[in-house]
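> forwarded from #structure-qc
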């Protein structure tokens, strides 16, 4: 995992380049938890579930290269979680090609986030979700 700071003219984002082979879920959760430490425990928990599901899906259904980003907004208070992968495939809610005991990740994402979606681009797709906060962040801009 490689930590990056992105500045595309909008709010600053924290980004991680993800390894090609094994999903670094514990490391991603630790990184996101540290970055979002000023939120309530419930809000951090919701964000950690969302980031875990989106990163796991990028490994289960996507292709390298992969990247995860966190964007913070104060008005309204929200965290936008974005995960890029190079596969053009569809995002399916409630079904998995990997077995009957799978496929609930996007249902969780849909229920924990205010909204979510998929942005397609030449290099694949970005799956994103926005989790609302109950109070403005400390202005860290991440």
């Amino acid at each position: 995992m490689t930590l990056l700071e992105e500045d595309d003219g909008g709010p600053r984002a924290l980004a991680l380049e993800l390894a090609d082979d094994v999903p670094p879920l514990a490391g991603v959760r630790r990184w996101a938890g540290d970055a979002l430490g000023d939120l309530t425990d419930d809000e951090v928990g919701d964000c950690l579930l969302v980031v875990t599901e989106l990163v796991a899906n990028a490994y289960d259904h996507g292709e390298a290269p992969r990247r995860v980003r966190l964007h913070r907004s104060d008005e309204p208070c929200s965290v936008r979680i974005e995960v890029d992968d190079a596969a053009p495939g569809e995002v399916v809610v409630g079904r998995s090609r990997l077995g009957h005991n799978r496929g609930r990740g996007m249902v969780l994402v849909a229920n924990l986030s205010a909204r979510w979606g998929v942005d397609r681009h030449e290099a694949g797709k970005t799956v994103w979700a926005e989790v609302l906060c109950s109070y403005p962040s400390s202005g860290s801009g991440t």
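QC bot note: The chain has a mean pLDDT of 84. The CA atoms of residues 48 and 85 lie 19 Å apart.
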